[in-house]
UniProtKB/TrEMBL annotation:
<dbReference type="InterPro" id="IPR014756">
    <property type="entry name" value="Ig_E-set"/>
</dbReference>
<protein>
    <recommendedName>
        <fullName>Arrestin-like N-terminal domain-containing protein</fullName>
    </recommendedName>
</protein>
<dbReference type="InterPro" id="IPR014752">
    <property type="entry name" value="Arrestin-like_C"/>
</dbReference>
<feature type="region of interest" description="Disordered">
    <location>
        <begin position="1"/>
        <end position="24"/>
    </location>
</feature>
Length: 201
């Protein structure tokens, strides 16, 4: 296994050692997608770092990311599925982002939104829990890229790199959580993206 190049911590965020994961979360980070003043979709993420220390959740390699997605529908709507995804990407100056991490979890499709009957719809409040385990290492390939993913020569395995963002830096590493609500035919899916941070081990 190769060591990734040393990265500085993300600007303005303290990366002090968080409490053990055997203990209850210190804080819950919540972010909402609002339409006309109404919280349509809310993403809750369990964190070990208080929000007073960091406005975004901080994790470490090999640790879980857990929480829940809440949907509050004012009127009936077809929901074919709900997904949560953890993405990690690296950007070099003048280059498109290369995605080195993509962990997707498909959450339970509501029982009253069967694909066998597209006329059945959801309304009111619904909640889906998620739990995704971060790896300790990721394979990274360099060369030609297709749709933001490296497809060139076979790469090496590196430790999951910490978040890094500096104006003068040559490499930018970022992580994000993507919640997707798959809607009915001819309807645009609802996609909500929030940043997350990976601390150096």
């Amino acid at each position: 296994m190769d060591e990734a190049p040393p990265y500085a911590a993300q600007s303005g965020i303290s990366l002090a050692e968080p409490p053990s994961y055997s203990r209850a979360p210190e804080s819950i980070h919540s972010y909402s997608l609002e339409i006309e003043g109404r919280k349509l979709l809310t993403l809750f993420v369990n964190g070990r770092t208080p929000r007073s220390v960091s406005p975004i959740p901080i994790f470490r390699e090999g640790q879980p990311i857990s929480g829940r997605i809440e949907l509050d529908l004012k009127s009936p709507e077809v929901v074919k599925g709900v997904n949560i995804e953890v993405q990690g990407g690296m950007t070099l100056p003048g280059e498109d982002e290369v995605q080195f991490l993509e962990l997707k979890q498909r959450l339970s499709v509501p029982t009253n939104a069967s694909s066998n009957n597209a006329n059945k719809k959801l309304s009111g409040k619904h909640s889906w829990a998620f739990d995704i385990q971060l790896p300790r290492e990721v394979p990274v390939s360099w060369g030609a890229k297709t749709k933001g993913k490296a497809t060139g020569r076979e790469g090496k395995t590196y430790r999951l790199p910490p978040s890094f963002s500096e104006r003068s830096g040559l490499v930018f590493v970022s992580y994000r959580l993507v919640a997707t609500v798959k809607r009915g035919t001819f309807k645009v899916n609802r996609v909500y993206v929030r940043s997350a941070s990976l601390a150096e081990k």
